[in-house]
Amino acid sequence: MAIRGVLFDVDGTLYAFEGAEEAGLHEHLAAEGLTDRFASPAEALRVWREIKEEEYDRFLRGESTFTGQKNDRTRRFLAAAGVADASEMPDDAAAAWFATYAARKNTTRRAFDDAQPALDDLAARYRLGVVSNSATAHQRAKLEAIGLLGYFAEPLVCSQEHGAAKPAASIFLAGCEALGLAPAEVAYVGDNYETDAVGARDAGLRAIWLDRSAGGATGGGVGVGAGAGARIAPDTGIRVIASLTELERL
């Protein structure tokens, strides 16, 4: 069956979040006088990302809310930095700390260099949509800020509102429904091998794994998880690309 639509992951696929995250965190720690609490900037970033992954996984499992995981990340990180009583920080104070960090991060956020050219090409031929493990308002604002929102059909399908996260088949199928297409008519593009590629393949979509480490695409880093430079021999039914520009041969 011919492909008529393409669904995309956001972070690490379209949005170069790692570079923005690193710059925003270092600026925020400097402003808060916390840089010297860690052995090095690299160590601070490692701790931040380790806590983020753990708390975001809790959110995806339904054990925390999208806002709650931000607050918990803040408390745990500040506790790791040795800030007194950080673990007891009230929600409003934790939210304010995280919001200030996010505002600094957002000043440097941008799309990967290959994102807009690829979407320009695809939009003339396919229906385009988003399936993301996040919250809809958060991803809509992000896509608008990096100039990509207008390419995608509504609704954006995100795990908080859908009630299940990738790699669950149901969220991929909801994305297909948003495009008005059968799964066999839809390709899914994402940077995480297990969550995106294997999940989409198992849901009956055409799975495309974006492994930027294979081709050195520019724009701010690679994605997290199995897509972050891991040398994986892909399973049957999973196509590997190193840049979104390769989608012209979809």
What is the string of helix and strand elements? EHHHHHEHEHHEHEE
- Major sheet description: 6 strands, parallel
Counted beta strands: 6
Rounded to the nearest angstrom, the radius of gyration is: 18 Å
Integer average pLDDT: 93
What is the spatial order of strands in the main beta sheet?
Answer: 3-2-1-4-5-6
> Given the structure, what is the number of helices?
9
Q: List segments where confidence is low: pLDDT < 50 over at least 5 consecutive residues.
A: 216-230
From the spread of the alpha carbons, the general shape counts as elongated
Class derived from helix and strand content: alpha/beta
Helical content (DSSP H or I, runs of 4+): 40-55%
Q: Please state the oligomeric state of the protein chains shown.
A: single chain
Helix and strand arrangement:
Layout: E1 5-8, H1 17-32, H2 41-60, H3 66-80, H4 91-106, H5 115-123, E2 127-132, H6 136-145, E3 157-158, H7 159-162, H8 169-179, E4 186-190, H9 193-202, E5 206-210, E6 238-241
Helix pairs in contact: 1-4, 2-3, 3-4
Summarize the structure.
Helix content is 44%, strand content 10%. With 250 residues, the chain is α/β, with parallel strands linked by helices. Mean pLDDT is 93; it is low at 216-230.
